[in-house]
Amino acid sequence: MEFISDYAALLSPSLTLAVTNKAKELKAKGEQVYGLAGGEPDKDTPDNIKQAAIAALNNGATKYTPSVGLPQLRQAISDKLKRDNGLEYGIDQICVCSGAKPAVYAALRATISEGDEVIIPSPYWVSYPSMVQLCGGTPVFVETKAENGWKITAEEFENAMTPRTKMIILTTPHNPTGAVYSEEELRALGEIAVEEDILVMADEIYEYLVYGEAKHVSMATLSPELYNLTITVNGFSKGYAMTGWRLGYTAAPAPIANAIKLIQDHTASNATTFCQYGAIEALTGDQTFISDLREEYDFRRQYVYGRLSNMPKIKVVEPQGAFYFFIDTTELGIGSLELCERLLDRYKVAAVPGIAFGNDNAIRISYCTSLDVLKEGLDRLEEFCKKN
Predict the structure, then answer these.
(1) 181 near 319, Cβ under 8 Å?
(2) Could you tell me how far CA 266 lies from the centroid of its own chain?
(3) In whole angstroms, what is the distance from residue 283 CA to residue 273 CA?
(4) How many C-beta neighbours within 10 Å does residue 286 have?
(5) pLDDT tens digits, residue range 175-200?
(6) Quick check: helix, strand or coil at residue 215?
(7) Residues 6+ apart with CB under 8 A from 241
(8) Which of 37, 68, 154, 175 could serve as a FRET partner for 342 with CA atoms 20 to 30 Å apart?
């Protein structure tokens, strides 16, 4: 008898986790590894957030909450969405989940049926295709181009649609490329979504990390029709350095929000109770951590861009958001997995192979690490490029 489900059999291991784990193994053996593969801020969670969670724990916040989260946290999220994004959501439209990743999955579970197609611009965050498959849907990949800033165009979106298209997933700022969609670009995509009655999942987890002249725009703000088609996903991991707290949320039209609630009822029950009190403090307390983090990461971004732009045999588009560079390695003539293995084994530099994101002619590096590590890691990457 076969015990593994057809859906589970479709899954493959996360290459981002595989690289991270191998780098940790080398470090455990006492080797110096220059980690440029990270997907989380290198800063600690702000103390006021930690203290709020500790106080809640000491005050007995150890019981269940409503499956969709504490009412006061959902109110804080509602206030935040209005303040920062210009979005009006009642607390009954908001569901708090155990991370933005479970929020994405719950939203897909609530909307995707067997055979539905979900358009995913490529390169993409590694888990989107697997989540769609777990819901019985079919990922439809649209290859974006470096000359378009790694962003899907309205024409490419329209050409990818079929009668089975149910949703498009848009991530801005984007992982792995750092692309940020402008209001004009989102409007063009949104007009097609409205015309064809296609849902939009707007993953905005990196919204606070936008640099230069770029501005973050929430898709659901662009028209009442788009509001009724958009599921906004966000969380606390990137902007507040709360990756291990596992807190995210969805904000959606009432029927979809109710479906997400029912899924939460029968799966996660609720996000960790005392962590939710930390999230309330994150949203309502001192916000200077975010601006300080953004300023520091912008400095690192400019440093890394200057270095990469002068390296042989690679090409790079300047990212406008998040904390990644997606590096075109076509000229090196090496598949991304082998390239990253050589980098780690011979040069002790950890990067993520682009094949994990749907592009085997690229690698992703992160600048959420110290300048010393960045400098040495980039020195070694440059040496690699010169010798291959």
Answers:
(1) no
(2) 25
(3) 16
(4) 12
(5) 999 999 999 999 999 999 999 999 99
(6) coil
(7) 40, 41, 43, 44, 45, 46, 289, 293
(8) 175
